[in-house]
Amino acid sequence: MKKLVIASSIITAALLAIATFFDLQIAEYLYNPDSLFSKIFAVIGMLPQQALLIFPPAMILAAMFEKRGEMTVRNWLIISASLLIVTVSNMRDSVNYIRHETGLSILVIIAAVCVLEAACFFAAMPFAKKNPWGLLIAGLIGYIAFALGYVILLALKTFWGRQRFFTMNDPTAQFTKWYIPQGKAASDSFKSFPSGHSFSAMCSVWFALWPLFIDGLKKYTKLIFTFAILFGFATMLSRMIYGRHFLSDVTVGAAIALASFALTKKIICRVFEANVR
């Protein structure tokens, strides 16, 4: 983990150094609003975010149910209420995004989410019986890391106010450096920094934690992690090609995800150290 953190920090610093001098030039060179690659990743790049709003709560509740003899009613209420509050607050943007992409009504989307949540809960029960602590730890890391990173992401998007490249009529005059906040964003056109899609895509590193509760996946941990990183970089590239973000935007979005997961994993594993196999 320490080597991964160091490597991620070096890559992030290098990309931001490049972006400091060539952000606009890279954006102008890559821009292609008709790119099929970018249109595909505009959809699939958000899938990890949707998964992290569905899977972890189901996993946590399944593990708690298996350990119900050790849980008080008060603990059940506190944890369940916390999961509900965080899920509902974070679900709004996801529901709006799905509605925009599919045209489905909010009620249909919410109903589908509830059904999917229930299905995931029952699907997680066999794993809870075999390894409840592993399931709980993986679920907590995914849920807390995503919630932490998402709060940071939204705060920066809202108060950094950087204009998206594709909305610029005169890029040379309207372009702003990534490290200079522009104030509260007037609209979505000024929420370029940091990239939400890059954050979402890089959150897929969470799936590399599934071997904590699925023994058969242990030998594939590195492969899953590598795929997640490549998926994240592909999404980052697609957002630049699509003109929605600059190199600095996608770099910081991905960095927030990786930092949130690294920090949360360290804390959660330390708390449950005696239960980690």
Strand content: under 5%
Gross morphology: globular
User: What separation lies between the terminal Cα atoms?
Assistant: 16 Å
Low-confidence stretches: none
Oligomer: single chain
User: Using only CA atoms, what is the Rg?
Assistant: 20 Å
Q: Percent of residues in helical segments?
A: over 70%
The total count of helices amounts to 10
DSSP strand count = 0
Order of helices and strands: HHHHHHHHHH
Biggest beta sheet summary: none
Which structural class fits the helix and strand makeup? mainly alpha
Index terms:
277 residues; mainly alpha
Detailed description of the structure:
There is one protein chain. This protein has 277 residues and is mainly alpha-helical. It has a domain at 2-49 and 131-275. It contains ten helices and no strands. Helix 1 packs antiparallel against helix 10 (247-271) and helix 6 runs antiparallel to helix 10 (247-271). The longest helix is centred in the N-terminal third of the chain and has 30 residues, at 73-102. The relative contact order is 0.17.
